[in-house]
Structure prediction request, 245 residues.
Amino acid sequence: MLAEAMARTGQMLLRGIPPNGNAYWANRFWDRDAAERHPDLNAEFEHQKSTISEYFKKYAQDAETAVEFACGTGEFTRLTAELTKVSSITALDISEQGLERTRQKVRHDDLTLIKGDFWADHGLARSDLVVCVDAIHHLGDVKDVLKRLRSFVKPGGVFIGNALILDRFHEFERCRYGTVGHFNRTAQFLATAVMVRASGGRLNTGAYRTQLRTSKDIRGLLDDIFPEVLDVSVDPYFMAFACRV
Prediction:
């Protein structure tokens, strides 16, 4: 189909150039609550949340400290507070709107919220539990993102996260936005890819804020980067994982 062809062309043009969605996300927030109300995709989002909740209960019960990157509106910050025994939680996001919703949603005696870029130095110590949900594919080159996330996990600690995957991405997008909406979004992506390549990566738009990898590719990265992959769940549109350092 034409949308798939445009996406492949855009991906080839962007090879070696990671996405940079900072400006896009700084002015809005990932509204997972709205995603969970989608009439056709709500079950997929709910299943991902259930899987990650089980990872918290199974692998993070000994954690004393937690740090979450790209916390959005705080749904998984809330679950960290409710499903683990951590004494402190630090949650970081680039969106002030998202952090305000996190502040309203999460009840914990020691919650620190930080507004900032994932790649900036915020003086964060290594933690027993590191969480990054619904964001790894937005933060840059997926391999580099996973390496950076690992660097914040204490020895013996656990990383829990997920990623949107390429396997059935076009099906997901058509379900989410409709056929016309998906076509238009893919056309915008291709136009941005041309602009990014022509400018040597200096110019970008919000249309290129996601790097998609197949579930097989991501599993390979997890095996290479983390000493122990504890659990992996591959669903039609997402994959979730828990790893130990």
Observations:
- DSSP finds nine helices and seven strands in the chain.
- The beta strands are 65-69, 88-93, 111-115, 127-132, 153-164, 228-234, 238-244.
- The chain has a mean pLDDT of 96.
